Amino acid sequence: MKLRYALFALGLLITGAPDALAQGKTSTIASAAVPEAAALGGSTLSHVDPNTDSQIVYTVTGGGYVWGTNTYGDSGKYSCFNLPDGMSSITVEQVDIHMIRSASPTMTSYDIVLYSGTPGYDGGLGTGPGTEIYRESFDITTVTNTDPNALPIEATNHPLTTAPTVDGPFCVGPEWSAGAGLNDLTALGTDDRGLGGDNPNQWERWDNGAFYNMSQAWTAFSADMWLSVSYASATAAEEGADGELAVTAAYPNPSAGRAEMTLTLPAAGDVSVVLYDLLGREVGTAHEGLLPAGTHPIQLDARTLRAGTYLVHVSAAGRSETQPLTIVR
User: Fold this and answer.
1) Could you tell me which of 89, 115, 93 has the C-alpha nearest to residue 233?
2) CB 269, CB 316: distance < 8 Å
3) How far apart are CA 32 and CA 97, in angstroms?
């Protein structure tokens, strides 16, 4: 495994590359506090907490997973998660990754892929990603960040066209073409935990098609990718079909100001969707009035609100539900 670590270091020292992203590999970019709040334990899964962690990129000892072909062959990076407590299944609606790409890529697209898979170790290597659950391709221009010196890295949002259902532990992350070259170098932000321990949650795929745990592959590399998963309970749609109000989680969450949630009504009736701050003060109304039976998207416009966590209160069909919504700037 020491050879693999050495190759990673070599990959960070490429010079004379065609743009600032590759050239920036010769220097360390200091970590920076990320000005956003995470709804951890609510409708978002993540191994980083923007309230307490600092984001870093491009350091061997501090973090910065690199993807694209350079001096070593790999084709994917993944974070693995257990299901939230008390849930037997969820639908994955969006995957957000803080990432930077080269300014002039030759690669036209990359994929966001979900696998079944269990965090942890088995015989020293762990189980990691297993059977593929879902794959969706995104244009490379989805990643708008091209300046390696601009920290913190903004999130690249990947709303999934058909939200897949997972009923057990899973792994998710970006994959790219085996033909990616130096113009396709891209960095994934991580926390600043760096080296020094085992991390069962972070995995990568090498060009031999096998999955490897990052801590094993990089000699105790213990940082987490700055990746979050927005999810909803997979039973929500079933509840609506059974004659009860069903509310899916707002996404994206965290949001830069606009989000959407879906209500399923068993019968026509008055619906109220109101936003409150954490002091209980009303700060906005997304909907107030009659809606017919069926499924309805509700737009949440919080562009005028300050960054922070708010509560979305839904009242309909004789029931009410409250969900957190985090706004970032």
Assistant:
1) 89
2) yes
3) 16
Q: How sure is the predictor about 6, in pLDDT bands with cuts at 50, 70 and 90? A: very low
Identify the H or E element spanning 5. helix 2-11
Residue showing tokens 């562009």: 303
Helices (H) and strands (E) in the chain, counts: 4, 23
Looking at residue 115, its pLDDT comes to 95
Residues 116, 254: Cα–Cα separation, whole Å:
25
Residue-range domains of the chain with CATH:
2-231 (no CATH), 235-327 (2.60.40.1930)
Backbone angles phi and psi of 217, in degrees to 5: -70, -35
Handedness of CA 301, 241, 116, 43 (dihedral sign): positive
Q: Are 15 and 71 within 8 A, CB to CB?
A: no
What are the backbone angles phi and psi of residue 154, rounded to the nearest 5°? -75, 155
CB 319 within 8 A of CB 296: no
Task: State the pTM of this model.
Answer: 0.64
**Secondary structure (H, E, C), 223-246:** CCECEEEEEEECCHHHHHHCCCCE
